[in-house]
Amino acid sequence: MDLHILDHRLRVTCISKSGLQRYTHPLIKLIFLRNRTRCKFFSLTETPENYTVVLDEEGFKELQASEHLQVEGSTWLPLNVVSNGNTSSSSQAAGVTKITKSVIAPLAEQHVSVFMLSTYQTDFILVRDQQPRHLQHALHRTLVEEFSIFREERGEFLPVHSQDACDGSQRNGRDAAHATVHPVLVPENQFCVMSLDPETLPAIATTLIDVLFYSSSFKEDASADPERIKFFSFPADLLFTSSSGELWRMVRIGGQPLGFDECGIVAQISQPLAESDISAYYISTFSFDHALVPEEDIESVSEMLQTQRKDIST
Amino acid sequence: MDLHILDHRLRVTCISKSGLQRYTHPLIKLIFLRNRTRCKFFSLTETPENYTVVLDEEGFKELQASEHLQVEGSTWLPLNVVSNGNTSSSSQAAGVTKITKSVIAPLAEQHVSVFMLSTYQTDFILVRDQQPRHLQHALHRTLVEEFSIFREERGEFLPVHSQDACDGSQRNGRDAAHATVHPVLVPENQFCVMSLDPETLPAIATTLIDVLFYSSSFKEDASADPERIKFFSFPADLLFTSSSGELWRMVRIGGQPLGFDECGIVAQISQPLAESDISAYYISTFSFDHALVPEEDIESVSEMLQTQRKDIST
């Protein structure tokens, strides 16, 4: 398999529910009027808490600072696993499950905190751009066992040699082996995962604008109904797809907002899923992480994660 | 002909160029998401100076007060001429020309200031809701000679009798007979007048959003090029139409902003046009008035208005 280090320097930001009106103008530009902006990477995820917007530095320029905008301090690089035909993975499961053993687990072992953005087509693994050199090397040595590593430069993918090192790691004080096991919430509603040809975007613009900007009142109490969660994730280039009409259920990870420094959170969830070969999309947001699993697997996943909590707490 | 007094109480407002971002959220709702609002009358006109938004009181609630929003103090009622088959007008010309003799001139004679909003389908004549009772009667007596007058109430049109009186007049200090002749500007660019089936609105939403909210920088100097004027008028229900692909030229009326109190301005422009049977759309905005005339008539119209200025100033 190939590991691509994409040519984007990303910022992770958060718009409060009450700030959405103020940011409607730049967000509509970033989502629907792509040729008005030089932004090449954009993702927006609505959760009951807030809106998480991940975007490159060109896109970030569109967002004026205000009390409604929080910005994580680092720049992040997206990594992307590309299976080149003769895949070494034996798993048929989709999403993060497929890359758990090869990427997620090694990153956790190297104490690299990751921010995951799954789409139907691919899973973006965001890692911090700046990290100590010795960790770059350790990380590179780990990943190079599984992958040919390429770095995107001006649209071309150039092979990365060991001394160039793969970016992406920041040692965290907390050891992955003794990671906190976070409480999980399993809301009752079902989710669709679907994709759109970017060409059809104009045709459904008013519907998407309605859902994104007008379907919830910001006065809504986020904690009103923990059984149902409003969740809408929208990457502009690579939209979700559903070939089969199947429905998905969510596991939300975290009782308190997770922050950005802890490593091993994705691995904690994706490893048991990978062992059972259960497909999963994994979407990090500013406050919490979210895994989507097939509806028929939600009970076993729920049980699995409960058992894991007990195992670690005893 | 019938004169309908429509069941809308309208506000005339103005958003500054630099305030557009702030009002993008409510404006997109009012234009594209009609079932999210109870607003039934909406018109937006962009000029180099600002955005004029005319809307009913339900729509007005959507616009939060700010230093970027100016609101004219009165409530306005829209009048609408409906030709019921056996039209008494001998004119084949479209727009305001058709109603000059029957409505525009009598209103000017009664010293009623009007705010015009032409669309392809119809011409809305906005008059102030509150006016002295003796003027109501005078106005009614004048209009009743030409029209059967109906007032819309809960979707039905009820005949208006003389003692009920037609609303709409406010005597102005300045006499129509001695009205100021305002300087006119004839920009060089051509204009399209077109209509859209409301059903096709979603299909062109991104294009319209682009034109409305992203095509001009608010740093643009409004006076930069008086030869060309950016002008975009958008009523949500009754959109412009062009059956023939013909192009239109503009006459902008006013050197200084016209205000809302002077009467006879529309009559001053539309009377010579009516005499020559030249079609015209007439669109008032917060600062200036605008007449659109067929491209082939612009020179004679220009000349006509020059002669008129000289006649009055001598």
UniProtKB/TrEMBL annotation, chains A, B:
Residues 182-234 form the Cytosolic arginine sensor for mTORC1 subunit 1/2 ACT-like domain. Residues 9-69 form the CASTOR1 N-terminal domain. InterPro entries: ACT-like_dom_sf, CASTOR1_ACT-like, CASTOR1_N, CASTOR_ACT_dom, CASTOR_fam, CASTOR_mTORC1. Keywords: Cytoplasm, Phosphoprotein, Ubl conjugation. Its main location: cytoplasm. This is Cytosolic arginine sensor for mTORC1 subunit 1. The keyword Transferase does not apply. GO terms for biological process: negative regulation of TORC1 signaling. The keyword NAD does not apply. Functions as an intracellular arginine sensor within the amino acid-sensing branch of the TORC1 signaling pathway. As a homodimer or a heterodimer with CASTOR2, binds and inhibits the GATOR subcomplex GATOR2 and thereby mTORC1. Binding of arginine to CASTOR1 allosterically disrupts the interaction of CASTOR1-containing dimers with GATOR2 which can in turn activate mTORC1 and the TORC1 signaling pathway. GO terms for cellular component: cytosol. One of its GO terms (molecular function) is arginine binding. Belongs to the GATS family.
